[in-house]
Design a protein that fits this description.
Number of helices: 22
Number of strands: 6
Largest sheet: 2 strands, antiparallel
Length: about 500
């Protein structure tokens, strides 16, 4: 005969059942509410036309992303090494003027600010000169490629090759909106999208289809449209004379792979004004270096650290305040790492300090190599005597520039950058030994004096730059040309 259950136990079971039903109901209600909120938050209020370049129009549908993006206007953050503040890098390190003698960067090179300043800073740079008309100025139209969502708009309207043709001033009135939404997103689906053909073409030449990339890969590839090494190829079959944008990845993405490519196609960015070496100018191989580091190898995307997820008002979204993770350690680093902020920051600074110490040493050696090569020419050296020496200078400075231009590289892949700089020191020292022997053959004894380059102004005077003229041309351009560009752009966009 079974025992009869106590009445109080029935009450306990009843109350527990009621509590469970209540909690389940609350859970279902919360899920339903969040679905409704999500539908409301991500249902477009207005239809965005394909190629719409104005970030403000996109911002009507995505106010959180829009508002966070425009925080890139804040340029007050300074870390131990750079940050997002405007820094005159030639003033900080006048050796750069000598290393880039004969190239635009010796005129003007500032630490980059936030994406919102992309168009403004390019307009203001002395490197773009002071064009008075559409066919004037030192730079090609290709230089606009990474600066604005107006670029894919124009490419779609005119064609890619036509966009690359001509001078930089040709498109001044067309490109006015800073880097933004249409650079990375499809206007209908909001999916991440590659809008620059150079990246697609680089994949195709390697037998890869970028359309097969995963969403996580796309969170880096949209950055790789611009934060990469590239050059302007004027010798492409059927496009001769057009400075066509190309990524030199056909042989791989290491410093040696790209060097092999450049040597094979005979590419020279400029001939150095002092040494007459056929130089390579690294642009900003951030994506290539990032892939060689532990984060890239583990599948951590660019956006995970520079645009981490954020929750606001119950909504999870990607924070479009693109910035250094050191200014957002809690959301960028401590999502994975459990160390304290000061410990994580010190780890980064320690790597940067060690890389910069050797990079500075390579700079000093390269300055000496350029000056010693000039002395050889002054003493009557022949092309045959200088050939191997100039090639050595080219290889040594390519490694220095690859490390210097890969912004964040000392964090992304410190082991690889240490290797690259070490090899650069080795090559440059061997080149200077050859220079020393040649100087002796030419009858010179002693040490070639180090140039008087204690300041940017002194260094620019030493290499013969007419800075007063360049600055006057830029001032005239900003006074008389820029207002016309802006007025023409205003009238065009009023018709959208």
């Amino acid at each position: 005969m079974s025992a009869k259950r106590e009445p109080w136990k029935n009450w306990v079971l009843f109350i527990a059942s009621m509590v469970l039903v209540f909690l389940l109901g609350l859970l279902v209600s919360t899920i339903t509410e969040r679905k409704i909120e999500a539908k409301y938050a991500y249902t477009p209020m207005n239809k965005i036309k394909q190629g719409e370049p104005r970030n403000e129009v996109w911002g009507e549908n995505f106010p959180r992303e829009f508002e966070s993006y425009y925080r890139t206007a804040d340029s007050t953050f300074k870390s131990k090494h750079n940050g997002n503040a405007m820094i005159d890098m030639l003033e900080v390190d006048p050796r750069l003027v000598v290393l880039w003698a004969g190239y635009g960067f010796s005129k003007d090179y500032n630490q980059g600010r936030g994406h919102v300043y992309a168009v403004e800073d390019l307009r203001n740079s002395l490197r773009t000169g002071g064009p008075k008309g559409k066919d004037d100025g030192p730079m090609p139209s290709t230089c606009w490629t990474c600066k604005s969502p107006d670029v894919p708009r124009i490419m779609n309207e005119q064609g890619v090759e036509e966009f690359y043709k001509g001078k930089w001033g040709k498109l001044g009135a067309e490109i006015v909106n800073p880097i933004g939404c249409a650079d990375c997103h499809d206007s209908e689906t909001m999916n991440l999208k590659v809008t620059r053909p150079a990246l697609i073409e680089a994949f195709e030449r390697q037998g890869k289809d970028i359309k097969q990339a995963t969403h996580n890969e796309m969170r880096s590839l949209v950055c790789a449209q611009c934060h990469v090494e590239y050059y302007f190829n004027k010798k492409l079959p059927g496009k001769e004379g057009t400075p066509y944008l190309v990524f030199p990845w056909d042989d791989g993405q290491t410093v040696e792979d790209m060097e092999t490519y450049y040597d094979r196609v005979g590419h020279v960015d400029w001939v150095h004004k002092l040494s007459r070496a056929p130089m390579l100018k690294a642009q900003h191989p951030g994506y290539e270096v990032y892939k060689m580091g532990i984060h890239g190898q583990r599948g951590v995307s660019c956006a995970d650290c520079h645009m981490p997820y954020k929750t606001e008002g119950g909504q999870k979204f990607t924070d479009h305040h693109i910035q250094s993770p050191l200014n957002n350690v809690a959301n960028s680093c401590q999502v994975c790492h459990r160390e304290e902020k000061d410990v994580l920051t010190k780890n980064v600074y320690d790597n940067q300090d060690r890389i910069l110490e050797n990079r500075d040493q390579l700079e000093r050696l390269l300055v000496r190599a350029h000056v010693e090569a000039k002395k050889c020419w002054d003493l009557g050296a022949t092309e045959a005597q200088m050939k191997d020496i100039l090639h050595g200078i080219r290889l040594g400075q390519w490694r220095w520039d690859y490390a210097a231009a890969s912004h964040g590289g000392s964090f992304h892949a410190p082991v690889e950058l240490g290797r690259v700089i070490g090899k650069g020191i080795d090559i440059t020292q061997e080149t200077r030994i050859k220079l020393g022997k040649l100087l002796m053959q030419l009858g010179f004894s002693g040490e070639v004096p180090y140039p008087p380059i204690q300041t940017k102004a002194a260094a620019q005077k030493y290499i013969g730059l007419p800075m007063d003229q360049l600055e006057a041309e830029k001032a005239d351009f900003k006074k008389n040309v820029l207002p016309k560009w802006d007025e023409e752009a205003k009238q065009r966009e009023a018709k959208y």
